Amino acid sequence: MLKRFRGQFHALGQIGSDYCNQQRFWPLSGEGKPLWEFKEHDHRLYCFRKITGLTTKTISVVLFGGWIKDKRGKTEEEKQKVRTAISIYKEFSQEYPGFEG
Questions:
Q1: With a threshold of 0.90, does the pTM exceed it?
Q2: What is the tens place of the pLDDT at every residue in 73-96?
Q3: How many CA atoms lie within 13 A of 73 on its CB side?
């Protein structure tokens, strides 16, 4: 799986907080906020990104889950995976209160 996402992780590390690729890395909307989604074909990774340096555009990223999406478009399973990632994010935010957005 690292090979699938290596290019995105590298770009994120090089570009920092300005990195947003509408095909492969973007913020979720609706109930998925404040999470972001990495996408590589049918593989998805949900994460939270926090800008940690204003002048250097440095960011920290915490991954909260991933899955392999079926080709049928938006499904209840996808919504459940987002809800699970949000739940993990909330637990993380309680454990590390200074890290949330």
A1: no
A2: 778 888 999 999 999 999 999 998
A3: 0
Relative to beta strand 43-53, strand 25-27 is unpaired
- Whole-angstrom Cα distance, residue 41 to residue 56? 31
Whether residue 34 is preceded by a cis peptide bond, meaning omega within 30 degrees of 0, is yes
Euclidean distance between CA atoms 58 and 49, whole angstroms: 10
Matching residue, tokens 């290596």: 6
Instruction: Walk me through the domains of the chain, giving residue ranges and CATH numbers.
Output: 2-95 (3.30.2310)
Residue 46, φ and ψ in degrees, nearest 5: -100, 140
Q: Is 49 left (phi over 0), alpha (psi -120 to 50) or beta?
A: beta
State residue 101's pLDDT score.
Answer: 59
3 state SS of 14 = helix
